[in-house]
TrEMBL record:
Species this chain originates from: Crypturellus soui
GO molecular function: actin filament binding
Keyword tags: Actin-binding, Repeat
Record keyword Lipid metabolism present: no
Domain of life: Eukaryota
UniProt-listed SMART domains: NEBU
This protein's name: NEBL protein
Length: 184
């Protein structure tokens, strides 16, 4: 009771002041924070890593977190694009040279990945994929036949649209000469 009474009368009653953030106090707080971080890292190395827990860049959990971070970053970028750029009147069209170049590069990479998967997954497992399979030969033959038919149809159309050149006096002379030579 006496202690509490002295506290109320002696300290609280006399106007105890709260310290303001002086430069020295801020420096001490920062030093304490740095010390805590160093202590945390030290504990991490001795307590967690030393006891067999795997903490590295190739653990599945770290990979998952990195992938989630990339996805979040892409979403934030798109959100900023819509809010900051498109919202302010700047047009970002799909036909700019950079976007077309990026699309083309993406398609090429996709084709390379597809071919790599084809070689490793299908051809490597014994399935025959090439120009000698019966199905591919049948398709090639059908394509050739269709091409020949179209060529013949086109030739017939062209024959109807052209007319023969009338015989000129020179042509008649050559024809008569040919007949005379034949009869001789």
């Amino acid at each position: 009771k006496e202690y509490r009474k002295d506290l109320e009368e002696g300290i609280k009653g006399k106007g105890m002041t709260v310290f303001e953030d002086t430069p020295d106090l801020i420096r001490v707080k920062n030093a304490a924070q740095i010390l805590n971080e160093k202590q945390y890292k030290k504990d991490l190395e001795t307590e967690i890593k030393g006891k067999g827990m795997q903490v590295g860049p190739d653990t599945p959990e770290i990979k998952r977190v990195k992938k989630a971070s990339e996805i979040a970053s892409i979403k934030e970028y798109k959100k900023d694009l819509e809010n900051e750029i498109k919202g302010k009147g700047m047009e970002v069209g799909m036909d700019t040279p950079d976007i077309q170049r990026a699309k083309k590069a993406s398609e090429i990479v996709s084709q390379k990945e597809y071919k790599k998967d084809l070689e490793s997954e299908i051809i490597g497992k014994g399935m025959q994929v090439g120009p000698y399979t019966p199905e591919i030969q049948r398709v090639k033959r059908a394509s050739e036949i269709a091409s020949q038919k179209m060529y013949k149809d086109e030739a017939e159309k062209m024959l109807c649209s052209y007319s023969a050149v009338p015989d000129t006096p020179e042509m008649e002379r050559i024809k008569s000469t040919q007949k005379n030579i034949s009869s001789v």
